[in-house]
Amino acid sequence: MKGALLVAGTTSDAGKSVVTAGICRWLARQGVRVAPYKAQNMSLNSFVTADGAEIGRAQAMQAAACGLEPSADMNPILLKPGSDRRSQVVVMGRPMAEVDAMEYWDVKERLRQVAVDALERLRSAYDVVVCEGAGSPAEINLRRGDIANMGLARAANLPVVVVGDIDRGGVFAALYGTVALLEPEDQALIAGFVINKFRGAPEILEPGLDMIRELTGREVYGVLPWLDGLWLDVEDSLALDNRPAIGARAPYGRQTLRVAVVRLPRISNFTDVDALASEPGVVVRFVTSPGELDDADLVVLPGSRATVSDLAWLRATGLAAALPGRAVLGICGGYQMLARTIRDDVESGAGLVEGLGLLPASVEFAADKTLGRPAGTAYGHPVAAYEIHHGVVTADGGEPFLDGCRDGSVWGTTWHGALENDGFRRAFLAEVAAVSGRDFTPAPDVSFAALREERLDALGDLIERNVDTGALLRLLEGGAPRGLPSLPPGGSSREAPDFAAGVPTSG
Prior knowledge:
Elements: E1 3-9, H1 16-29, E2 34-37, E3 40-42, E4 46-48, E5 54-56, H2 57-66, E6 77-81, E7 86-91, E8 94-100, H3 103-125, E9 128-132, H4 150-156, E10 160-165, H5 171-180, H6 184-187, E11 190-198, H7 202-216, E12 219-225, E13 246-247, E14 257-262, E15 267-268, H8 274-277, E16 282-287, E17 298-301, E18 303-304, H9 307-317, E19 328-331, H10 333-338, E20 341-344, E21 351-354, E22 361-372, E23 375-378, E24 381-384, E25 387-395, E26 399-401, E27 404-407, E28 410-413, H11 422-436, H12 448-466, H13 469-478
Parallel strand pairs: 1-9, 1-10, 2-9, 3-6, 10-11, 11-12, 14-16, 14-17, 17-19, 19-28, 20-22
Antiparallel strand pairs: 4-5, 6-7, 7-8, 13-16, 15-18, 20-21, 22-25, 23-24, 26-27, 27-28
Helix pairs in contact: 1-2, 1-12, 5-7
């Protein structure tokens, strides 16, 4: 088998990432050599590959679904927003520029071939490439410069499956409207739909499925039921809007441990706390106000793409004033905020800024970003992690903690992913319980890596049991069906993109 397809979505957070991962897992279990790909990703949740390249965390998860070590080719362009108008552009795993929204239109012209070459390498190396779109393909104001959705699909002749989120309502209008807003040449590649996050009686949904087939001339390849407890390396903080407190399985000891994660405006790599929620008796919730810290045994200050700006937000909300005297873990940007001083002439240009002063350390931002996969030991256990930061922290006191320091009940480190190391995580939680006076004992047998594998298998099962996999195979091998009808108002005179040149159409 040789082929590729594109998983698009009616909106952000429709489920593109998990459907892509599920298809990848299902194919890998069939013995197919499959790889994920996302030409352009906008996310503050990122990962570092073995060779030191920064890519979207979702693509690292999808690579795991394929049984692969992630590579920069899987996400050649990564945008990391630092404000509503400016983003850092990461190209093939390395920072290229800091641009505003309008400047990026010019930058895009130089990135088309980068995306083309990455896809070409993947299609040459693997039997199947499952591509994920970005946002919605019907964002018509962005169509001309598109390098992630229909621009890519048309140039590479990729069949497209559109995912719609029924849980948010209006899914049939969203599916129909997505197709109708596209040009006829783009519509010809929309092969069909998958409806995601369905809860209820399937027979009630069936008349709508029949109508959308009749109205669009396209198949509904499957309806995916709502899957509780699935929390896998989401791309952005939009998914946090509907996330309840997680964890709360029966504790191994007599009491639970309550963790409050501060939801910073530019929060990044909040996937660091997923491992905490895997522990029985640990409850993790995201908070934005001081009152929500009242019963917290541990406060986590996570990573941030805008350390100085988010520190000002902490002070404005009163959260900063509520931290002294509490057990606090700062990770990357959160660690930087805990220092005495921060000198930032790079990210914010704010110069010297007073930190929270809860750790004996100082921070200076460097022009070059540190990207790596460090390893060490803590609490007598091995720790493997990854790091992504411009801020360089120098500790001048306290006790060593990973690459950072500890002072009393406050810990700081730049290492992401450290809590995924089971022995270290248990020892750290036992220390937090001792500091907070909780009768809490971490369970001795929780494996976060095994839990992630179980969740990836659950995604593969979701596709296998609820999607017409035979139709997916036909799309991979033969492309979009011929003769699909065009829907009005397709056929407008909008200028077509010039992305078509040079994109591969086969492996």
